[in-house]
Amino acid sequence: MRDCIFCRIVAGEIPSDEVYEDECYYAFRDINPKAPVHILVITKEHIGGVAEMEGHEELLGGLVTTGVKLAEELGITDAGYRMVINQGADGGQSVPHVHLHVLGGRPLSWPPG
Ligand code: AMP
Questions:
Q1: Chain-centre distance of CA 77, in angstroms?
Q2: Cα dist. 77→33, 61, 67 in Å?
Q3: d(CA 30, ligand 1 centre) in Å
Q4: d(CA 47, ligand 1 centre) in Å
Q5: Does any ligand 1 atom lie closer than 6 A to the CB of residue 93?
Q6: What is the pLDDT of residue 7?
Q7: What residues act catalytically?
Q8: pTM listed for this prediction
Q9: What does the pLDDT read at residue 1?
């Protein structure tokens, strides 16, 4: 999608600190990290949010398993880590292109703010 910042990152039009890429997914470091490890895993296909993933269950499952694989590769699995998908304004979603946050490298408090 032309005006979507994450689509533009996938297209290479906006630089990003790439962590992983395959046919369906792209992962990169969050520009404003909330933990020592904070990456975003996104679908290459433009989907506005997790609420729009009905019919894309396989793609949604792959988004999560890609996050798990990258958490292992980034060395944050022993202590544990967190995955987050924000949805909508109250959910804290600021970019309307579905993305999985993978955070680790420090203890993370609960509940979130
Ligand atoms: P959310 O608030 O859940 O929609 O998450 C969007 C995330 O994208 C935020 O954590 C931002 O810091 C991050 N972000 C926005 N623009 C960029 C960018 N150009 N490169 C990397 N991360 C970005």
A1: 17
A2: 18, 19, 11
A3: 6
A4: 15
A5: yes
A6: 98
A7: 99
A8: 0.98
A9: 77
40 forms beta bridges with 28, 101
* pLDDT tens for the 113 residues of the chain, in order: 789 999 999 999 999 999 999 999 999 999 999 999 999 999 999 999 999 999 999 999 999 999 999 999 999 999 999 999 999 999 999 999 999 999 999 999 999 98
> What's the CATH number of domain 5-104, 3.60.15.10, 3.20.20.70, 3.40.50.300, 3.30.428.10?
3.30.428.10
- Ligand 1 within 6 A of CB of 109: no
Pocket test for ligand 1, best of 31, 63, 103 (most atoms within 8 A of CB): 31
Dmax (CA) for the chain in angstroms is: 40
Residue 66 Cβ inside 6 Å of ligand 1? The answer reads no
Output the six-digit token pair for 100. Answer: 């999985």
Q: Where are the domains of the chain?
A: 5-104
